[in-house]
Design brief:
Radius of gyration: 23 Å
Structural class: alpha+beta
Length: about 150
């Protein structure tokens, strides 16, 4: 028999600082120094858990925070290898997904135009008119509905 999936923690169980990290990290590069590899990995795990909880609860800022990615760095000269347990100089980097390409795109002369910025801006008005067939129809409360289960009670 398979075990049921454990539910995620609700968004309200996370600190507002983690939400700030994700929001700012979706716009700019953040470097967060950590005392140890374990602390850095745990912080990264909590950030991803918050994003997962936001998805599960259909949080209004979920689309924005999916633009941020995380990566772990440490002093490779002092601590060679992949994720050494005793590494020092650990830094958790949170940055926009495609920011690593900004230098080569600028050299190629590619800059986002107004149209691309409008698509990514949550505050901008939608460029296409809303479809009236997808809007919910108002319910007329003047006429009571018949209860189909009344006969079976």
């Amino acid at each position: 028999m398979t075990r049921p999936k454990l539910g995620r923690q609700p968004v309200s169980s996370f600190g507002p600082e983690l939400m700030e990290i994700l929001i700012r990290g979706s716009r700019e590069k953040l470097s967060i120094p950590c005392d140890s590899m374990a602390q850095m990995k745990f912080l990264q795990m909590r950030i991803h858990a918050l994003r997962g909880a936001m998805n599960k609860e259909n949080h209004p800022n979920y689309q924005m925070v999916t633009r941020a990615r995380t990566s772990c760095t440490w002093d490779h000269e002092k601590h060679p290898g992949k994720f050494p347990k005793a590494a020092t100089g650990c830094i958790l980097v949170v940055q926009p997904n495609d920011s690593q390409f900004s230098g080569i795109l600028e050299r190629a002369g590619i800059k986002p135009g107004e149209a691309a910025a409008d698509i990514l801006d949550e505050t901008a008005a939608p460029s296409t008119p809303s479809d009236p067939t997808t809007q919910p129809t108002p319910i007329d409360d003047a006429e009571p509905r018949r209860d189909p289960y009344k006969d079976f009670q």
